[in-house]
# Entry
Amino acid sequence: MIREFPCVSCPLGCLLRVELGEGVIRIEGHRCPRGEAYAREEVTDPKRVLATSVKVLGGDYPLVSVRTDRPIPKRLIPQAMAVIRKLAVDAPVSIGQEILSDLLGTGARLIATRSVRKASASDEGDPSLGGQGQPPVEKGDLPES
Ligand code: SF4
# Structure
């Protein structure tokens, strides 16, 4: 079997061609050892950077976008998502903040890719922002002017 895919290790994007049988038989198309290593990894244990979001408590936004600081094995992504779905972080969250260290023993850190401020008092009644403040004022509750 032959698999072809571009190398993503540098902007040149060489088209790699891997012949597979009982393991890797031949790798072609690479211009450097990094490409050869990437081709071997891609057909044996591919890795990806995981980008998703984590729940924020008391923030002006209910979620914060996150990503791993290095690629993790693609086969672990469903397990990683199950862990991440259970996470919640208190606001404020700073861009670059570590949300989780050593995701599933891969050594990868989960990092915030944006900032989320604490909800202001006026946000706290807005359920879309995750707040639990005062309910909205009805028109009939307002004093006559
Ligand atoms: S094989 Fe080497 S030169 Fe080609 S895209 Fe990959 S890293 Fe770049």
